[in-house]
Input
Amino acid sequence: MSKKMNQLKEILGEVSDLHHAASVLDWDQNVNMPPGGSEARGQQLATLGKIAHEKSTSDKVGNLLADLKTEFPDADSDEGALIRVSTREFEKAVRVPAKFVAKQAIATSKAFESWIEAKNKSDFAIFRPHLEEVVELVREYISFFPPADHPYDTLLDDYEPGMKTAEVQQIFETLRPKQVELIKAITSAKQVKDGFLYKKYNEKKVWNFSEQIITKFGYDWQRGRQDKAPHPFQTTFSVNDTRITNRYEANNPLATLYSAMHEAGHAMYEQGSNPAYERTPLAGGTSLAVHESQSRMWENMVGRSLPFCEHFFPTLKKTFPSKLGGVKLKQFYKAINKVEPSLIRVNADEATYNLHVMLRLEMEIGMVEEKFAIKDLPEIWNAKMNDYLGIVPPNDAQGVLQDVHWSSGLMGYFSTYALGNLISAQLWEKINEDMPDLDDQIRKGKFNELLGWLREKIHIYARKYDPQDLVQKVTGSKIDSAAYIRYLTQKYSEIYEL
Amino acid sequence: MSKKMNQLKEILGEVSDLHHAASVLDWDQNVNMPPGGSEARGQQLATLGKIAHEKSTSDKVGNLLADLKTEFPDADSDEGALIRVSTREFEKAVRVPAKFVAKQAIATSKAFESWIEAKNKSDFAIFRPHLEEVVELVREYISFFPPADHPYDTLLDDYEPGMKTAEVQQIFETLRPKQVELIKAITSAKQVKDGFLYKKYNEKKVWNFSEQIITKFGYDWQRGRQDKAPHPFQTTFSVNDTRITNRYEANNPLATLYSAMHEAGHAMYEQGSNPAYERTPLAGGTSLAVHESQSRMWENMVGRSLPFCEHFFPTLKKTFPSKLGGVKLKQFYKAINKVEPSLIRVNADEATYNLHVMLRLEMEIGMVEEKFAIKDLPEIWNAKMNDYLGIVPPNDAQGVLQDVHWSSGLMGYFSTYALGNLISAQLWEKINEDMPDLDDQIRKGKFNELLGWLREKIHIYARKYDPQDLVQKVTGSKIDSAAYIRYLTQKYSEIYEL
Output
C-alpha cells in the first residue's frame, strides 16, 4: 500500500475511533447513566465531536485525498471507493463552518426543549418560532453547498448518498395512489380481532422470547448485546461490537418482540460489514434506507409472515398459555398484521406507514422551498392526513408535533424509512427467486441461508456502493415501488379477503 | 479571569473530557462489552490516550503555564494550585518520549500474557525474562527524570505527589516491628470462629444488602451506580457520575458487602470533589494513599466496627435467618475481624495487610536498585513472608506471582495501600476528637455527620493539596504510623483478649 494511503488511513482510523468512542458514551447515556451525569456527558461528546471534525477536515486530509485520487483511479476497487467516499465526506465537512455548527447546536437544543413543552401542552404555537429558526438554519446549511437540481437534494444526500429529490418524488408519486387505494379497500373489509395482543404479558418472559427469536435469526451475541433503554435503537462500536436496545410497554407488550427483530436487522447488517473496512469511512451500512431495508425485512417480511408464525407461535403459546391458549395460528397471524389508519407514525402498520412518511417529505420540501409558512403547518398536516388516511388528528400533539426530528434539525431523513420498505420488498422478491424454499426454511426456524444471502449480497459491501448502485447491482433495478405494492397487495388480499 | 487562563482551561478541559471518555470505554469493557469487542476497544483507547497526550504536551500548554505562573503567584489560591499541578503533570508528560510509551505498552502487554501463563502453571521462570524487561523499562523511565534522592522517588511521585522513598521507608521501619509483634501475640491467642461467614448466602440478597449499607453511608445514586464486574473498582466520569463495580464470590459471599463499602468510600471522595475544579487537573482525589484512606475508613474503621455491627447485624440476621440465626452480635463482630497470617494480599485482614505491602515495596526498591536479581525474587519473597508473617508460600502462584501489578509495569504503587491505612487511622482519631458521639451515631445508622466532616476536610479540596500537606493540614502531622498502631492494638487486644 502506498505511503500516502497509510497516512490517510491512520487519520481516518483515529476519526473512526473518536466517533465510536462517542457512540459508546451515547449508548451509556441512554442505557446506564445516572441522572447527574448528563451535563458532563454533553461536554465530553462535544469535545469528541470537535476533535473528530478538526482531524477529518485538516488540509492534510484534503491534500492526501487529492493525491490519492490520481493514484487509485479505479472507482470499483476498495481503494477507489475509500477515496470516493472519504472525499465526499471531506468536501461536505469543510463546507460547513464550525461557527455554524455551534450556532445550530444551540438553536436545536432550544428547539428540542420547546418541542417537549409544545408536545406536552399540545400547542404548536410554542414550537413555532423555534421551528422557524431551525428551518432558517437548514436553508443556511443548504447555502454552503453548490446549487443542486433541488435545494432539498443537499439534505437528502446526507442520508441517501447520491439520491435526488426528483427520484424520491417520482417513486412516491407512483406508490401513493396505490397504497391509498389498498387502504380504502382494507378499511371497507371486515376488521381482524387483536385484543389478545394487548393483555398483560410478563415482561421478563417477553424479553427472553425476543432474544430467542433474534438468536435464531443469527444475531451474534459474541459481538453484541440487548439492553433496556427509553427507545429502541442500534449502535455500532466496531464490526465486532454492535448492540441493540429495546423497551417493554405495558400497553403493547409484544411490540418488544418486533423491536428486537427490527433492531437486530440493523445490527446484523453492521455485523456483516467487511472487517477489512474497519476504521475507515467504508465500514458500516451504506445509507439509512438500505439499513432500514434490513431492519424492516426481519421485522415484517420475516417476522410478520405466516411461516414465521408457524414456527414461533406454538412456543409463544406455551410461554403465555393464559394469554394465547385459545388463539389459533391464523388469528395470531392476522392480528399482528392488522391494518388501521392511525395518527402516530411509529405505531403505524405496514400498509399505512409509508403514507405517514410521504406526508412528512412533502411538508419538508414545502418548508425548504418556503412554499409553506411554518404557522400553517398544523392545518396542512391535518388536511394531508385526511387525504391519505381518512383521519384527522384531534390535536397538535397527535399531529404535527409527534416526531422529534425537526426539533433536532433532522430534515431529509424521513423518506429513508419508506425507501427502506421499498428496498426490502425488492430484495425479498430476489431472495425468493434465489431460494425457492425460503418459506419452508422459515417454517423450520432456519434463517442461516437467508442471513448468508444478505451477508453476501448486501452486508459485506458495507459503504462501498451507494444505495441506488447497490440496489441495482443486487436486484437489477433501482429503488422502485412495484415490488412493495405487489407484496402488500398479495399479503392483505389474503388477510382481508379483498 | 485572564485570557490565558481561559485558553489553558479550554485545553485542559478537552484533555479531561478525553480521559473521562476513556474511563467510560474502560468501564464498559469491564462491565458490558461482548467478547468480540476487545480488539477495537484497545485501539479506541489507544487513540484517546494518544490525542490526550498530544494535547496536554503541546508547546502552547507549556507557554501558557510558564506565563500564568507569573500571573498567579499565590500557591494557595485555586489558580495557583491549578498552575502548580498542571505544570507538574506537563513536565512529567513531556519528559517521556511517545516511542518509549509505545515500547512499554508492547512489553507490558506481553509480560501480562506471560504472567497469566506463569501464574496458571505456578512457574516464575516463565515470567522471569518478561519481568526483567519490564524492570529494565522502569529504569529507563526513571532515567528521563532529573536524579532524585533515590531513583524510586520518581516512581512513587506518580502515585503520591511529593512523597519521598526515604519518608515511606522511615514510616514503615517504625510500623513493621510493632505490627509483627502484634500478629505474634494474636496467633498465640485463642482463634475466633467464623465458619458461618462462608455458608451459601443468596447472591441477590447480598447484593441488595450491600446497596442498603452504602445508601446509608451517603453514596449518591443520582450520581453513581453499582454494576457487576470481574473485579471491584471505582471509576469517575465526572463529579456527578462516579460509579463502582462489585462481584459475588460463592466461597466468600459477604466480601461483596465489604467491597461495596470500600469502593463507595472511593466514590464518595470523588462525589465530594469541588465542582469548580471540574475539567481541570484539580478534580478528583489527590493521591492513591488519600483515596485509599477513604475506602479503607468506610470498609474497616466503620464497616468492621462494633457500632456498625450493632446497627446492621440485626437486619442482616433477619435477611439470612438460616445462616445467622444462631450467631450472636459479638461472634459476628469477631468473625469479620479474624486475624490469620495468610499468603494472599487481597484476602489479608487489617492486622496483616500492611506487611504484604512492605514486602512488595522492599522487593521493588531492590529491583530498581539492581540489588536483587530477578531470578532470586521467589526465594527473597518466601524468606520475607517467613520473617513477617511466619508462613512460606508452597508455590510461586501463591507467592511472588500473585499480583498483576508488575506485569503491567506498575511499580511505585503498592506502598499507597499501606499509607492509606495509616492515614485512615490518623483521620479517624481526629474525627473522634471532633465528634465524640461518633460511635453512637454509627450505632443509630447515622453517617451524614461523618460524611460531612470528610467532605469539608478532605473531599472538597480534591487535588489542590498534595497528600502530605493535606494530612498535615487536617491532622496536624504528616503521614505517620502511630495512630494506626494504636487503632490495631486497641481493637485486637479486646477481640483476642491480649
The first helix of chain B runs from residue 3 to 31. Chain B has a mean pLDDT of 96.
